[in-house]
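Recall from the previous lesson that a structure prediction takes nothing but the amino acid sequence as input. Here we apply that procedure to acetyl-CoA carboxytransferase from Bacillus paralicheniformis. The sequence below is the only information supplied.
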Amino acid sequence: VELREKIAELKRFTQDSDMDLSSEITKLEARLERLEEDIYTNLKAWDRVQIARHPNRPTTLDYIEHLFTDFFECHGDRYFGDDEAIVGGIAKFRGLPVTVIGQQRGKDTKENIRRNFGMPHPEGYRKALRLMKQ
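The prediction returns the following tokens.
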């Protein structure tokens, strides 16, 4: 975290002044990449579980927001109801219409309960199947 902050600070400083620190920034970015690689290649099983459960980890809606445009969410399975653990709909990816389907967990306890902790009910699977067939 400190190294990322230092890189960002150097980039801001370079933009504000006439000094060229691009070689220093490149070295720091390479060092950060090596550190991250060392950390993530030597993880124990429990460390991997903790990373997977991290509350700030991106969710399906985060990916949809950053990758797609014109997302229109479809609700319900047309039989029983809507399962909020499955998010799906129609969007555009680089201008092409696509169907997007994913599991969605909550970012806090209240949302986790509403979305059943990301565990779909049968109506969620039916909703996903309906979206795949359209």
